[in-house]
Amino acid sequence: MKRTLKNAWQSFTRNGWLSTATVLVMTLALFVIGGLMLVGVLSQVVIEELEGKIDIAVYFYPNSSEEDILNIKRNLEEAEWVKEVTYISQEKALEDFKERHKNDQVILGSLEELDGNPLEATLNIRALDPSKLADIADSIREKKYPIVDKINYFENQVVINKLSSIMASIRNTGLSVILVLAFIAVLVAFNTIRIAIWAAREEINIMRLVGASSWFIRGPFILQGVIQGIIAGTVSSLVFYPALWVLSPKLLVVIPGIDLFSYYKTNLPIFFGILAGTGIFLGVFSSFIAIRRHLRV
Amino acid sequence: MIFFDDVSKIYTPTQAALRNVTLRILPKEFLSIVGASGAGKTTLLKLLIAEERPSEGKIFLDGVEVTSLGYRDLPQVRRRIGTVFQDYKLLSGKTAYENVAFAMEAAGAKDSEIRDSVPEVLDLVGLVEKANNFPHELSGGEKQRVAIARALVNRPEVIMADEPTGNLDPVTSWEIIKLLVKINEMGTTVILATHNKEIVDDLGRRVVTLEGGKIIMDEEKGKYVI
C-alpha cells in the first residue's frame, strides 16, 4: 500500500503537465455537474413559488354566518390533497380592497355610495399538488353548500391547467437535459483519463515484462484517479464561490425566492461531498476501464 | 533448464516466424542465438517470457509449462528471467535507481532488501554515480547497463538479452558483452540474441543459428556463419 501510494504520487507529480490537464478537464466536468445541480435547485424554487401562487377561492354569499363558513373550512382542511385553507372575512376583504385601491378616488367614492359591504367572504385553498385542485373544486361543488356563491377554479381552470402542465414539463425535460449534459461531462473526463493512460501504455507494457502483477501496476493508476478526483472536487467547489458571489445578486432580481450564494455556503459540505465523490468515482472507474486492455501482456 | 518443445509461431499461413523449433538450454550456459533480421530470434525470446504465445508446441522453464500460464501467473515466471531489450525499455519517469528498484518492488521484496541490493547491482554495472539520473540523462550504453542491473536485481536464473548491443558503438558493445560474460560466470544462464558477428566469434560459446524460423545449426563452440 505504501509503495502504491509512493508510485502514484511520484507519477502524478512527475507527469506535471498531463496531471494538470487531466485535473483541469475533470474540474471542468465537475463544475458543469455542480452548475447543473444548482440549476436544478433554482428551477425547484421557481416551480414551488409558482405552485404557491396557484390556489382556488370559494366565495360565500353576503350574510352567510361565519360559523357555517368556518365549518366548511374545517371540513376542507381534513380533505385529501389540501395543503392550506385561509379564511378571509367580509371585513378583511373590504380592508384589503380599500388598501389595494387607496389611490383610486373613483373606486373608493363609488364604494361609499353603496350600503354595507358588497364584498364576499372567501376561503382560499392551496393544494399539495396543483393538479389536484380540480378534484377539490369538484368535491366542494358536489356538496352543494347553500351558502357557496361561486368557486373561481372554474373561471381560472384554463390558466391553472396550463401552469400545471408547464411545470410538469419543466420538471421532466429539465431533468433529462441535466442528465444528458452531466453524461457528456462525464464522458469527456473519462476520455481524458483514457488518453493519459494510453500515453503510459509503453510504461505499462514494460512493467508487465519485468514481472509486475496486474494489481501492482493498476494500483498507482487507480490511486492517481483518487488524487485527481479529490483535487478536481476541491477546486470546482471552490470556484463556485466567486462565481456565485458575482452571479447571485443578479439572479436575486429575477428569482427573489432564493439567494444562491448563501444557499451554496450553507450546503458547501454536501456540494463538496458530491463533487469530490463524483470525481473520485470518475477517476477510479476510468482508470480501471482504460488500463485493462494495456495489461493484456 | 529451458526446453522448447517443437514450437512454431505462425502469423499468417504463408509467414511463420518460427517453425518446429526444439531447443534445450542448460543451467549456467552462455547461449548465443544468431541469424539475420527476421530469422526469428526476437520471437524465440518473446515466447520464453510469454510476451507472445506459440501457435504450436510447448515451452518449459524448470518443469513449469510457460505456455499454459494465464496473465495472473506470468509475473512469477518473468521474475525468474531477467530481460534486456535492444531499446532498453526503461521507465522514463523513474531514475536509474528507481528503475532497478521497481523490478524488486514488483517482485514484492522488502524495503531493506531493496536498499541493499540496488546499490550492489548498480555497482556491478558501474553506474553508482548515475543512480539518480533519469533515462534521458544517460547515454545508450549507460541505459543498457541500467537495464542489465534491473534484469539482475531479482537474482534470476536466466538473463535473456535481445540485441543488447544493437544501438551501441563497438567499444560500448564490448563492455556490455563483458558484463554479460561476468554475470554468466557468477552462475546465471545467459541467452544472447544478436547479429553481431565479431562478438559471437570472439565469445567461443554455444551458438544456435536461425534462418527463416528454423534452427539450421547448433554448435558447442560456434561461429557466426551466415
From TrEMBL, chain B:
Biological process per Gene Ontology, one example term: cell division
Topology with respect to the bilayer: Peripheral membrane protein
Compartments, as annotated in UniProt: Cell membrane
Pfam family, one: ABC_tran
GO MF entries: ATP binding; ATP hydrolysis activity; transmembrane transporter activity
Key words, A-Z: ATP-binding, Cell cycle, Cell division, Cell membrane, Membrane, Nucleotide-binding
ABC transporter domain sequence ranges: 2-226
GO cellular component term of the entry, any: plasma membrane
Protein family: Belongs to the ABC transporter superfamily.
Known function: Part of the ABC transporter FtsEX involved in cellular division.
The protein's assembly and partners: Homodimer. Forms a membrane-associated complex with FtsX.
Protein name from the UniProt record: Cell division ATP-binding protein FtsE
